[in-house]
Amino acid sequence: MDMHFLQQANYIIQKLKTAGYEAYIVGGAVRDFLLNREIHDIDIATSAPATEVKVLFPKTIDVAIAHGTVVVRHQGESFEVTSYRGNTLFEDLRLRDFTMNAMGLSRNGDMVDPFRGKDDINQRMIRCVENPSLRFQEDPLRMLRAIRFVSQLGFAIEDDTLEAIKMNGFLINHVAIERVSLELEKIWSGAYVKRSFGYLNETNLLEKLEALLPLRKALLDEDVATTLTKLTNRTEVWTFLLFISNLEDPEVFLENWKQPKKIIVEVASIIKRLPSILESGFTCEDLYYLGLDTSLRTERVRAALLHTIENPIEVEKGYRKLPIKDKKELDVRGDEIALLLTNDDPKSKIGQLITAIELAVVNQKVENTKSAIIKWLREEGLIDA
């Protein structure tokens, strides 16, 4: 754990205690502390009402104050501080999802572990707190979270918890698609994704997730799980899954999954060019229109699909050799092209000619100089001689 981060959390805890309230580090930070994993954020549970937290600390952000949560900013770090659900820490912890996430850590380093979460961590076991069916009915997303922790930590799911997922799987369709998408992306990027696919198959959770039906065949394939470990971000994963699933309209699918517009556009642009890239490799046009970053992502997908080693150096070398990297680098402007047209030519012809010039320069059919471009336009019969 970053000791500076911990010290800042302890400052908040001490200030709450001085004001007469209980406060503990809780949740994933405690789990990751015991696992010696990097901690990205620290949550604090307290007996103080959210309104009192706002009074005690000068810099706060209301993120879910109706649910008792405010973010406290201290020395450049953010800490989620949440009022107990219930009247005590025990009542708060018993409402959490899994025993490994239902522990508290005091300022002095004393562990509060009423549900033996530390034992389950030592046994590498994912176990619901008390009644698993009740936990999943409170928030059905927890079923996917269990499998996400399998993918990230390599743990096993305890038998009663696993049976409860099988029994309550139909509830997953009650969860907002954005939340489901986020969990799935974390599953796909985990170090133990192949093991998590085994649980997805065993629980039939994907069968019950109606919005994912077009990808179901791919997601039930263990070879796909192995391949996903070679991909590095959500663009690559979505591209790979949608391409092998042969969806007619990947953009509509991603829109339904509430993906950011940037991701949708990038995935669609890669899928459009993938068939020819798989067959013949990257052309100058591919590298130009995709750009360097997207070309490198495309190369990882290409290598994954062909079960070969990616070659980013060659992709980057090809990109660096392009005569231009952007339309703005053309040595001729639209207003200069307009002067070459006749009165009978429609204005739309300017854009058409710029596109033709762009392709010709990228494919090195003409040098990127104004005189060479105008000469080429005349030779091609695109403007009057």
UniProtKB/TrEMBL annotation:
Domain Poly A polymerase head: 23-127
Keyword Transferase: yes
Required cofactor names: Mg(2+)
Swiss-Prot/TrEMBL keywords: Magnesium, Metal-binding, Nucleotide-binding, Nucleotidyltransferase, RNA-binding, Transferase, tRNA processing
Pfam annotation, one family: PolyA_pol
Single GO MF descriptor: CCA tRNA nucleotidyltransferase activity
Keyword match tRNA processing: yes
EC annotation from Swiss-Prot or TrEMBL: 2.7.7.72
InterPro entries for the chain: Bact_CCA-adding_enz_type3_sf, CCA-adding_enz_C, NT_sf, PolA_pol_head_dom, PolyA_RNA-bd
GO process annotations (BP): tRNA processing
Residues annotated as domain tRNA nucleotidyltransferase/poly(A) polymerase RNA and SrmB- binding: 154-209
Residue stretches making up the CCA-adding enzyme C-terminal domain: 230-377
Enzyme class at the top of the EC tree: transferase
Family classification: Belongs to the tRNA nucleotidyltransferase/poly(A) polymerase family.
Xref: NCBIfam families: PRK13299.1
Protein's name in the database: CCA tRNA nucleotidyltransferase
Biological source species: Anaerobacillus alkaliphilus
